[in-house]
Design brief:
The protein is built from 13 helices and 17 strands. With about 400 residues, the chain is α/β, with parallel strands linked by helices. Strands 3, 4, 5, 8, 9, 16 and 17 form a seven-stranded mixed sheet that branches. Strands 12-11-10-13-14-15 form a six-stranded parallel sheet, sandwiched between helices. A two-stranded antiparallel ribbon has the order 1-2. InterPro entries: ADH-like_C, ADH-like_N, ADH_Zn_CS, GroES-like_sf, NAD(P)-bd_dom_sf.
């Protein structure tokens, strides 16, 4: 089969690789019908997430048709059309039983690698996202093996198109959880979202669905801010005005009640901190550039929430913890517990509350993936979201 593979930092290719097989009786095989490039895939491309190996299959946003199931799979049937959460969960451990699926104790066989790096227990496994998170093959391919198949895949109702539900695999639940983590008081709270990429777009629209009185989206790219504005958000271009002053002016001087960092470890920005982050990341002295996180802490109102769906890879430097402590901020973060959002967000889609396909700007063949990784990373051609057809 064909698949998108990591060929070293900065190099993505499409190669012919062996078809996947069932390895355990709880596995299923999926024929992928649609897959997407996520912003967090760009961190892999750039080599800032450790433990990638040449030939690793990428992709954690995918859906398709069930073509084979293991003997212990009870829920899924061959022929069903499913979306598959990006994180892998056993459904039986204590975190899974509490709905904390991304913290699964049993799905990451390489957990000791992560524990050695972080000095703490690891999260669960992820599709196509480094050996640190299990070394699972990704879904930017024609077929994929899905472990714990009775726990993750969610059957898609008839009459719903791939493009309407594909993003239930990651970015829609990720944006929704980020907004939910804010504990928004409907009709009162102002929410600021740093980053108008795909997760930022869904975080902004989710905050509105949860009743935010006002949502302000911050970015530097006009096309992304225009998309956020079409969804009902106010916008702020940090290259045209001071972001901290701009947020104070828009909130009567108190700052946003909640701030969502939908950027993560490769933040752009300006100032001494941003320059130092860039130099140190290039020298491999730090994993993360945290300008957006600094701004989130600095701008958030006293007693507010800083919600962090953006990915961070390791140790951070020059984080203004003194400001966070002085203001009594609450931090909420982590990989999304995708599984628990599939049913309620599918109902939102079926009810017409949102059509997630609004975020798609590019549709292409799997063979075009290397070029579109570059296009997406370099913010060319107004690229915001790429969907790939593995069979075109």
């Amino acid at each position: 089969m064909k698949g998108v593979v990591w060929q070293g930092a900065g190099r993505i290719g499409v190669e012919t690789v062996p078809d996947p097989e069932l390895l355990l009786p709880t596995d299923a095989l999926i024929r992928v019908t649609s897959t997407a490039i996520c912003g967090s895939d760009l961190h892999l491309m750039d080599g800032v997430i450790p433990s990638m190996e040449r030939g690793d299959l990428l992709g954690h946003e995918f859906m398709g048709e069930v073509i084979e199931v293991g003997r212990d799979v009870k829920k899924l049937r061959v022929g069903q059309r499913v979306v598959v959460p990006f994180n892998i969960a056993c459904g039986l451990c204590d975190p899974c039983r509490r709905g904390l699926f991304s913290a699964c104790d049993n799905s990451n066989p390489n957990h000791r690698m992560a524990e050695a790096l972080y000095g703490a227990v690891s999260g669960g496994g992820l599709f196509g996202y480094s050996h640190l998170y299990g070394g699972y093959a990704g879904g930017q391919a024609q077929y994929v093996r899905v472990p714990f198949a009775d726990v993750g895949p969610f059957v898609v109702p008839d009459g719903v198109k791939d493009e309407q539900v594909l993003f239930l695999t990651d970015i829609f639940p990720t944006g929704y959880q980020a907004a939910e983590n804010c504990g928004i008081t409907p009709g009162r709270d102002v929410v600021a979202v740093f980053g108008a990429g795909p997760v930022g777009q869904f975080a902004a629209r989710s905050a509105m669905m949860l009743g935010a009185a006002r949502v302000i989206v911050i970015d530097r790219l006009p096309e992304r801010l225009e998309m956020a504005a079409r969804g009902g958000a106010d916008t702020l271009n940090y290259e045209l005005e001071d972001v901290l002053i701009g947020l104070q002016e828009r909130t009567g001087g108190r700052g946003p009640d909640h701030v969502i960092d939908a950027v993560g470890l490769e933040a752009h920005g300006h100032g001494p901190g941003a320059l130092a982050d860039t130099v140190k990341q290039r020298a491999r002295l730090t994993f993360d550039r945290i300008t957006a996180l600094r701004w989130a802490i600095q701008s958030c109102a006293k007693g507010g929430t800083v919600s962090m769906p953006g990915v961070y890879g390791g140790l951070v430097d020059k984080m203004p913890m003194g400001a966070a402590f002085a203001k009594g901020l609450v931090f909420r973060m982590g990989q999304t517990h995708t599984h628990r959002y599939l049913d309620p967000l599918m109902k939102r889609i079926e009810a017409g509350d949102i059509d997630p396909s609004f975020v798609i700007t590019h549709r292409a063949r799997l063979d075009d993936a290397p070029r579109l990784y570059q296009t997406f990373r370099d913010k060319q051609d107004h690229c915001i979201k790429v969907v790939l057809d593995p069979w075109a």
